[in-house]
Amino acid sequence: MSKALDSFLSRNLDELKSKGLYNEIDVLEGANGPKITIRGRQLINLSSNNYLGLANDARLKAAAVEATEKYGVGAGAVRTINGTMDIHTELEKKLARFKGTEAAIVFQSGFNCNMGAISAVMTKNDAILSDELNHASIIDGCRLSGAKIIRVKHQDMEDLREKAKEAKLSGLYEKIMYISDGVFSMDGDVANIPGIVEVCKEQDLISYIDDAHGSGVMGHGAGTVKHFGHAKDIDFQMGTLSKAIGVVGGYVAGSQDLIDWLKVRARPFLFSTSLTPANAAACMEAIRIMEEDGSLHDKLWENGRFLKAELKKLGFNIGNSETPITPVIIGEETLTQKFSRRLIEEGVYAKSIVFPTVPMGTGRVRNMPTAAHSREMLEEALRIYERVGKELGVI
Ligand code: PMP
């Protein structure tokens, strides 16, 4: 290894470790579900984004196996060369219908979808107004586009309006976009879609909602934009296939022209191999289940409401989440990490989230109840929360 790399790595790794900011990655011995096995121990899992429990659903697995038998394990090429199979286009049609748009385009992940879609439309001659708590993939997509990035105070429509007016008046930009998460994953709050639509229309802003945590959760599964009845008013409805849908991939749903453009300009679409056939088929099965049966969605919300109410009763600070995402805000980073470590030792897999993922001093243990958790599992988790909370003086 070069001396420069060696010194860079050891200096920075040591610093992270000494500050308690280095996250060890745990290895799951088996499927991701409401219970997981790590180092031979079964734990109640409150850390996944597998909102509807579909990641290990028998129907999705059967669809994946069937598609593998028919199409093989790989698509063989990037989409534009000869990696587009009928199941890829069928998945896009299903997504568009589900989202209430003319068309959709699928990418290999939510992260590269944001990187590709933002930079396919925005350029150095443009400006992007971006909510200050937006996800890292949005931030990176904005940076990649070369557009001027203007941070907007979290969910502050007046700040958005003022900054949009200022940007327009400057005469410096050809286009201006506003981009926001649909559901903010660290706090569980929901974007003010009606307010966003109003300001975007008034100021002629391109609107982009990353609904990674809203799809399958809000709007009876169809997402935050549809929840507010604005499917035709938001230009980009971006989402992921990796959370509620339980598989992997990302997509944008929007007008036919927008999707046509992304298919010729979004670089991960043009230069990276398409989803595996099994992946595409499992996603279609997940959409079918979500469209035909609301019971998983209802169970998710019931579990979320129960967990939040009981944690609050115990005296934990659970913030202001409007969705099943349930943060338990501890504050100081090392205490947050210790809290999570003790929960895991006692049998609840709930991970700490600290700076730089959330601002310094707002460390939290984030709980993601899913449709697959039984009431008994949540009650057991609450007993452990109470014990550890008292032991560490958090409650
Ligand atoms: N956007 C948001 C808001 C996310 O939370 C995530 C995943 N953490 C992504 C995009 C990236 O999605 P994926 O995991 O499918 O790459």
TrEMBL record:
Catalysed reaction equations from the record: 6-carboxyhexanoyl-[ACP] + L-alanine + H(+) = (8S)-8-amino-7-oxononanoate + holo-[ACP] + CO2
GO BP terms in the entry: biotin biosynthetic process
Membrane-crossing segments per the record: none
Domain of life of the organism encoding this protein: Bacteria
Listed SUPFAM superfamilies: PLP-dependent transferases
Residue intervals of the Aminotransferase class I/classII large domain: 42-383
Keyword Acyltransferase set for record: yes
A Pfam match: Aminotran_1_2
A molecular function (GO) term: pyridoxal phosphate binding
InterPro entries cross-referenced by the UniProt entry: Aminotrans_II_pyridoxalP_BS, Aminotransferase_I/II_large, AON_synthase_class-II, AONS_Archaea/Firmicutes, PyrdxlP-dep_Trfase, PyrdxlP-dep_Trfase_major, PyrdxlP-dep_Trfase_small
Cofactor(s) required for function per UniProt: pyridoxal 5'-phosphate
UniProtKB keywords: Acyltransferase, Biotin biosynthesis, Pyridoxal phosphate, Transferase
Family: Belongs to the class-II pyridoxal-phosphate-dependent aminotransferase family.
Assembly and binders: Homodimer.
Function: Catalyzes the decarboxylative condensation of pimeloyl-[acyl-carrier protein] and L-alanine to produce 8-amino-7-oxononanoate (AON), [acyl-carrier protein], and carbon dioxide.
This protein's name: 8-amino-7-oxononanoate synthase
